[in-house]
């Protein structure tokens, strides 16, 4: 049975990719995590993990090369999807060095571990997905359509770190022949989205208001941004199809792709949609200076032409359903007594 290693297994996208693999393939899932990470997003898989039913957890850290090497040598995954990262742009302004260390050096540690093993055993040749980000385009020109050849323009330490990650994925294919491919996912959301991201913190605050745990006021940061949205469950389907395309030779190693939604919104429109789903009337919106970033990526409109030529894929889950599922996720969490922080 073939194996896929998912770094960042406990995150929103990692856990949903695990769900996709288990539901749609016969591939075995290896979830990489650090021993102290919260299990909230993967508790629904705990029984299968305990029973070793096509899924297991392995403990390792991107900043510990020995742990990565040990994991790769013992498990020999056929596919690797590298999703682990310090992934919060606003947080990266507060912890820039950790962000750069984890996202750039951590990615290099993983790729170089594969390279080293492959040099001593040419039969080991996994396909590796390196997850970059649409944030590499940063402060793009308003009105432009961002395709894969658009110039990078960093807008945060996170953005800088993902530029490094992006180049590493391509470099290891060109220099060492690793079967990598790189994705730049646009704004994505849905159930399990962390509350540090815009639409999720809005949904969380609405759920808190409905539960009587917050006054009917939503606190937000910058609302000037225009961007596409997509459901992460659509994005992980694209990941899998790209693995198949590399394996079949339809996509060359080292290639890179935008994966983005086709529905565009101003951020105040996202707020209006979520408030419209609430059971509470008269909710106000207030800008909180502490939620503003020093620099923001204010315009993110993407061209999906390249990926749609490579694989048979397009977003299928409407943004309204994505937001409804996200709001229901927070309602469920709060109803179970999991009271989130105000952030």
Structure notes:
The protein has 343 residues and is α/β, with parallel strands linked by helices. It has a domain at 3-189 and 231-259: Rossmann fold. The chain is 42% helix and 17% strand. The protein has eleven helices and 13 strands. The strands form three sheets. A seven-stranded parallel beta sheet has the order 3-2-1-4-5-6-10, with helices on both faces. Strands 7, 9, 11 and 13 form a four-stranded mixed beta sheet that branches. Strand 1, helix 1 and strand 2 (28-33) form a beta-alpha-beta unit. Helix 3 (65-75) crosses helix 5 (96-120), helix 5 (96-120) packs parallel to helix 6 (157-176) and helix 7 (198-210) packs across helix 11. It starts with a strand and ends in an 8-residue tail after the last helix.
Q: What would you report as the Rg, rounded to the nearest angstrom?
A: 20 Å
Q: Tell me the span between the first and last alpha carbons.
A: 43 Å
Seen as an oligomer or otherwise, the chain set is: single chain
The coarse overall form would be: globular
Largest sheet: 7 strands, parallel
- The top-level CATH class of the domain at 3-189 and 231-259 is Alpha Beta
Structural class: alpha/beta
How are the strands of the largest sheet arranged?
Answer: 3-2-1-4-5-6-10
| CATH topology (fold) name of the domain at 3-189 and 231-259 | Rossmann fold
Average residue pLDDT = 94
Low-pLDDT windows of residues: none
Total helical elements? 11
Q: Write the CATH architecture name of the domain at 3-189 and 231-259.
A: 3-Layer(aba) Sandwich
Order of helices and strands: EHEHEHEHHEHEEHEEHEEHEEHH
CATH-defined superfamily of the domain at 3-189 and 231-259 = NAD(P)-binding Rossmann-like Domain
Strand content: 15-25%
């Amino acid at each position: 049975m073939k194996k896929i290693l998912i770094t960042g297994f406990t995150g929103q996208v990692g856990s949903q990719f695990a769900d996709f693999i288990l539901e749609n393939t016969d591939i075995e899932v290896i979830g990489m995590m650090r021993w102290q990470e919260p299990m909230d997003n993967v508790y629904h898989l705990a029984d299968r993990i305990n029973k070793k039913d096509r899924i297991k957890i392995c403990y390792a850290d991107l900043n510990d090369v020995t742990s990565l090497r040990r994991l790769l040598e013992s498990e020999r995954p056929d596919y690797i999807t590298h999703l682990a990262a310090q992934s919060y742009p606003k947080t990266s302004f507060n912890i820039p060095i950790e962000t750069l260390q984890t996202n750039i050096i951590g990615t290099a540690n993983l790729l170089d571990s594969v390279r080293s093993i492959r040099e001593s055993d040419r039969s080991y040749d996994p396909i590796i997905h390196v997850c970059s980000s649409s944030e590499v385009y940063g402060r793009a020109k308003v009105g432009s359509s961002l395709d894969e050849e658009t110039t990078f323009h960093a807008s945060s330490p996170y953005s800088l770190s993902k530029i490094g990650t992006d180049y590493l994925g391509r470099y290891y294919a060109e220099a060492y022949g690793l079967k990598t491919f790189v994705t730049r996912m646009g704004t994505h959301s849905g159930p399990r989205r962390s509350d540090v991201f815009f639409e999720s913190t809005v949904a969380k605050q609405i759920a808190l208001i409905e539960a009587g745990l917050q006054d009917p006021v939503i606190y937000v940061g910058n609302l000037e941004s225009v961007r596409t949205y997509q459901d992460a469950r659509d994005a992980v389907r694209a990941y899998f199809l790209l693995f198949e395309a590399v394996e079949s030779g339809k996509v060359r190693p080292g290639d890179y792709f935008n994966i983005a939604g086709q529905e565009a919104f101003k951020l105040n429109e996202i707020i209006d949609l979520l408030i419209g789903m609430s059971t509470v009337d008269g909710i106000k919106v207030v800008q909180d200076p502490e939620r503003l970033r020093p620099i923001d990526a204010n315009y993110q409109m993407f061209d999906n032409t390249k990926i749609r030529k490579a694989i048979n894929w397009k977003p299928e889950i409407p943004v309204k359903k994505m937001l409804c599922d996200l709001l229901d996720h927070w309602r469920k969490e709060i109803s179970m007594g999991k009271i989130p922080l105000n952030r």
